[in-house]
Every structure is written in structure tokens, then in C-alpha cells.
Amino acid sequence: MTAIDLLAIRRGHVSAPAGYGKTQLIADSLAGHDASRPVLVLTHTNGAVAALRKRLSVHAVSSDAFTLRTLDGWALRLLSAYPSRAEIDIRHLDVTRPRQDYPEIQRRARDLVVSGHINEVLRASYSHVIVDEYQDCSLDQHAMIVGCADVLPTVVLGDPMQSVFGFAGRRVDWNDLPDVFPEHHELDTPWRWINAGAPDLGRWLAEARRALVNGDAVHLNELPEGVV
């Protein structure tokens, strides 16, 4: 796999199956960041934020290099700072009714970013935007990030085979990403299984994934030796 510097990508997406070094790639890119403004790093859950923060700490990435938030958490901060500009009923910001409040928060944050009213704030606050697990973005979250990409260098990472939030409404279509994030890279080495001493399993899983993506059958009778 050719080394990828996420911060050298102006507007792109990275396809990254589980165990292929996505988190390491984010850490390596942030470790080399020395601009005066941090990189905004967004993901979906508090658990993912905690896991990524731990990995960045292990690799001694300076906390000055990044601002790490959930997508909804960052949207909530924006709306709390600019409630009038966003034209939101501030009762939604208390999130006492999550099923009603979060969709409204996502819509209003989308409109605020896309409107261009906070472009200068974004430029003054961050140098780049990185979004992890992008396959789980709602359409409103996707539109919000596209709005950010009109202002700041932005790269999104994910794997459509790992989407877990489909129950929560329509998600971004990974096949549409080249239209808005044209530069594309793909991680192709199953490091998790190589590092665990099971490279044959890693290769088999990669082949199985390709078959599933292409709509082909996966033959379980061809599992590597030692896998039952």
C-alpha cells in the first residue's frame, strides 16, 4: 500500500475495510500536522471518539493537532453558538427528545454550514476536516460535510460494507462519493490479520469481501486451514 497523507488530499475519500489500518492512517497523518489551526476530526459515536483519542495518545499525537468530536456533538456546538443564525428552536438543543431533536439538529446544522454564513469561522478555526465511518452519515450530515469541503480541505473515510445505522433512515450512498469527493484511495492490506500471524485468513477475508461487493457467493468450504 502506498503511503497516504490525508492532509495532502484537497477533497477525497478513502475506502478502508475493517482491520486495514484506517485508524493508524489517521494517527500518522495527524502526527505530522504542524499548522497553527487544528484538524477537525469527526466520527459518529462517543465510543469511537474515545477509541480514536486513545490511539492518538498512544502515538503521542499532540492534542493541539486536532479537535475530535462526534458529528452530532459538533453540530450541537455550532447551533449553540449561532442559534439565531441557524433559526433553530433552542429547546432542541437540550436534546430531551432525541428522536425529534437530533434530526432537527442535523437539518439546522446542515443549513447553517451550507449557507456560507460561518465560512470565515470555519477557516479561522480549522485547517482540515477528516470524517471517519462516513458510510453511516445521514443525508443531512453528508450535506453538512460537503458544505465544509467547500471551505476546507476535506477527506472522508469508511467502508460501505460496515454500515450500522441503516435503521435510522437513509444513509449516504458510497457510490455517489466520487461526485463530491473525487480523489480516491483504497487501503488494501489486512494488517490486523497479518499482525496477528494469520495472513491467510486476511487474504481469504479480502477475497470474500470482494465477492460480496460484486454480488458473488462466498464459499465457506474454502476457509484457510485452522479456521472452523
TrEMBL record:
One of its GO terms (molecular function) is ATP binding. Pfam families: AAA_19. One of its GO terms (biological process) is recombinational repair. It comes from the Bacteria. This is DNA 3'-5' helicase II. It comes from Sediminicurvatus halobius.
